[in-house]
Amino acid sequence: MKLARHKRSKELVTIKCIKQNTDVLLDKNVEREILNHRRLNHSNILGFREVFATDSHLCIVVEHASAGSLAGRCEGRRMAEAQARQLFAQLLDGLAYCHAQGVYHRDLRVEHILLSGSVYEPVVKISGFGYSKSAVMDSMAKTMVGAKGYMAPEVVMSSGSYDASKTDVWAAGVILYQMLTGRLPFCHDSNASGVLDRNMMQRIMHGQFLLPGDLELSMEAQDVLCRVFRPDPKKRIALAELRKHPWLTKGTSAKLAQGMPAEGRSMQTEEGITDVLQRARQRRLQRRTATHSDAVAGATSSSSLKHIGPASLGTQSMRPGMREE
Questions:
Q1: Whole-number Å distance between alpha carbons of 174 and 101
Q2: Which positions fall inside the Protein kinase domain (predicted)?
Q3: Could you tell me if 101 and 195 lie in one domain?
Q4: Which helix (H) or strand (E) holds 18?
Q5: Which of 173, 182, 168 lies closest to 73, judged by CA?
Q6: CB 256 within 8 A of CB 87
Q7: In whole angstroms, what is the distance from residue 26 CA to residue 32 CA?
Q8: Residue where one domain finishes, among candidates 258, 287, 308
Q9: Are residues 99 and 238 in the same domain?
Q10: Which of 67, 103, 179, 303 could cysteine-pair with 79, CB 3.0–4.6 Å?
């Protein structure tokens, strides 16, 4: 990851640099992450700016989230209920926009919930669209993906297709539980890291979670968790209904409830992105062929061996208009 500033707009951005291994073609998840992210323009979704390629890296430029991730706020510590409600409302706002655009995240977790703005009034930014599904481009969700502690029962079972909108609601509920308690809901003390063992799987399958005895939580907040953690997705609360729950409408400003379009929308078209990816694939194939030819030649004559080191990704390799911070 690199922090950079656009020379003309002066905007701070984060550049995710993916090293291009010559043995493997560009992962389909990377392409899906870029194209799905490109479609989304909302104040609670990390802004996509552009993608470009160097000789050694594929570089994804996104909005810079200056306040870090939600993981740093709720790992091992509890959040006040009012603060958790404000952040959760923003998370659901961004998630509802994703679903309205036909994009389902499938990998919601605290590490993918970034924060921007001030420490006292942070703005949620959803990121991490590598496992996202598009209702337009992709088939129905079937595969078991995502972090183990956030998977809904139907994903853990992996017995066929599932409703990705309902699995996103389940994962959002896990995030809410973490904010309120500082821990994952279906893990016991000896398995706090979230490894999917037999006990944890049983708890997930039955929606069995416990609240710490010393936690003072309103009945409305407890009701939210109970409605979200229903093993049967048909009985689980829908996202639209969840956003109207009394616990969320209490103390939530109209601005957060309605959401806002984001500033700085990407000007790069989907065709332009596809072209960048195609050229990156061709470049990797050429490098792979060249590497294979060198290896064959080296087997014949050791004097012809040549070390090919990875190209550096310094300031001179960055896209015009960007400079490394």
A1: 23
A2: 1-248
A3: yes
A4: strand 12-19
A5: 182
A6: no
A7: 11
A8: 258
A9: yes
A10: 179
pTM equals 0.81
CATH of the domain at 229: 1.10.510.10
Locus of tokens 């792979």: 288
Residues in Cβ contact with 155 at an 8 Å cutoff, skipping those fewer than 6 apart: 144, 145, 146, 162, 167
Which single residue is written with the structure tokens 């398995």? 191
Examine the domain organization and report whether 253 and 268 are in the same domain: no
**Is residue 134 domain-shared with residue 169, that is, in the same domain?**
yes
Q: Cα separation of 145 and 107, whole Å?
A: 7
**Is residue 107 flagged as an active site residue?**
yes
Residues 197 and 303 in one domain: no
Regarding whether 244 and 124 lie in a shared domain, the answer is yes
The answer to whether the beta carbons of residues 185 and 211 sit under 8 Å apart is no
Mean pLDDT by 10 residues, the chain (325 residues): 91 89 60 88 95 88 93 89 96 97 94 91 94 73 75 83 93 97 80 66 90 92 97 96 94 48 70 85 73 56 36 40 57
Quickly list DSSP for 285-303: HHHHHHHHHHHHHHHH-GG
**Residues 22, 83 within the same domain:** no
Instruction: Report how far residue 237's alpha carbon sits from residue 208's, in angstroms, rounded to the nearest whole number.
Output: 16
Give the residue among 73, 63, 291 at the shortest CA–CA distance from 176: 73
CATH code of the domain in which 271 resides: 3.30.200.20
By residue range, what is the domain housing residue 248? 71-258
What is the secondary structure of 69-123 as a DSSP string? BTHHHHTTS---HHHHHHHHHHHHHHHHHHHHTTEE-S---GGGEEEEE-SSSEE
